[in-house]
Amino acid sequence: MRGVIVTADDFGLHARVNEAVVLAHRDGVLSAASLMVGAPAAHGAIACARELPDLRVGLHIVLADGHATLAPSTIPDLVDRQGRFGSSMARDGLRFFSLPHVRAQLAAEIRAQFEAFAATGLALDHVNAHKHFHLHPTVLALILEIGRDFGMRAMRLPNELHGSILLRPWIALAKARMERAGIDHNDHVAGLRLTGRMDEAAFLSVLREPPGGVLEIYCHPASMGRGALTSSMRGYRHSDELAALRSPAVAAAIVATGAMQGGFADVFGHAVRQPTRVSA
Questions:
Q1: Residues 6+ apart with CB under 8 A from 119
Q2: Predicted pLDDT at 272
Q3: What is the mean pLDDT of residues 146-162?
Q4: I need a labelling partner for 59 at 20 to 30 A (CA). Which of 18, 50, 65, 227 fits?
C-alpha cells in the first residue's frame, strides 16, 4: 500500500469536533481534517489548525444539511431564510442539473467557500463535499473548474472498500473526470459504510488486509457532550471514533502496513505552504 490518510470530516461544525481533532492529531493517528468554512465553530477550527502545522486541512464543501457561506438573499434557491441548505439531495441534485439559474447560484456558493478557505491562510490539502455531494456530475464539474483558481491539487474519491455496486458508475465517472483535470485522489476510502461507527474494531478490520494504492480512512470524531451534534447525527458514536484515533493498536496497525502517512500533500508529494499566523 502506498499511503494511508486518516481524515476527520466536519471540522468546524462544533467546538466538540474541534477539540477532538486536536486530541486525535496530537495524541493519535489523525493526519488531516476537512473544514466546513460556514459552520458555527469554523473560526475556532481555524485557530486550532494554525497551532497544528502538521495537520493537513482541506475544504469540506457544504451543499446539503448545513450552513451556506453567502447570504440567503444571494442564493435564495439553495437555502432557507436562515441560510441553511436542505437535506433532500435527490431533489436538489435534479435542480442543479436542470435549472441554469440554480446552477449559477450553486457556482457562486462553491466559489465563496473556496474564497473563505483561502482567506484563512491555511494550505489547501484536499477538497471533498459534505455527504459526498461531489459525486453529482454538476457539482463535481463546478468544483473542478473553480478549484483550479485556488490551487486545488487533490480530492477524495468515495470509492468505499466493498461498497455499493450502485455507486460504481458514479465513482468511475468522478475518477475519470478528476484524472482528466490532473487532480490526485485516493484509490479507496473506508468510513462510508460505517459512518459514525468507525471505532477501533472497524479501523483494525480495514487495516488487517489493506488495499493497494492510497487509502483514506475518514471519520467524525467529537469529544463527549450532551445531545447529538445535528439531527442527522443521532446515533453517531463520536467518542468511540475519537478513542479509535488515539488507540495504540490502531497506530501500530497503520505502521505495520509500511505505507506513507500524512495528508494528500504528503502522500502525493505536493509542496506544503505553512499556515499564515495572524496576530490578535
A1: none
A2: 63
A3: 95
A4: 227
Cell numbers representing residue 105 in the block? 447560484
Output the nine-digit C-alpha cell for 184: 490526485
- The C-alpha cell at 257 is 502496513
Q: Give me the DSSP letters along 87-154.
A: S-HHHHHHHHHH-HHHHHHHHHHHHHHHHHHHHTT-----EEEGGGGGGSHHHHHHHHHHHGGGT--E
Tell me how far apart the alpha carbons of residues 273 and 271 are, in angstroms, rounded to a whole number.
Answer: 7
Q: How confident is the model at residue 270 (pLDDT cuts 50, 70, 90)?
A: confident
- Provide the residue type at 182 as one letter: G
Q: Taking Cα atoms as reference points, which of 79, 75, 144 lies closest to residue 112? A: 75
Spatial neighbors of 267 by CB under 8 A, at least 6 apart, are 2, 3, 5, 214, 260
CB 109 within 8 A of CB 68: yes
CATH superfamily of 3-268: Glycoside hydrolase/deacetylase (3.20.20.370)
pLDDT digit string (tens) for 174-226?
999 999 999 999 999 999 999 999 999 999 999 999 899 999 999 999 999 88
State whether residue 155 is helix, strand or coil.
strand
Say if residue 117's pLDDT is above 90: yes
Task: Tell me the three cell numbers of residue 58.
Answer: 482541506
Which has the higher per-residue pLDDT, 216 or 272? 216
Q: How does the average pLDDT of the chain come out, rounded?
A: 94
Does 279 have pLDDT greater than 60? no
Dist. CA 72–CA 139, nearest whole Å: 19
Sequence-separated (6 or more) residues with CB below 8 Å from residue 223: 16, 19, 20, 23, 238, 239, 242
- Helix (H, G, I), strand (E, B), or coil: what is residue 249? helix
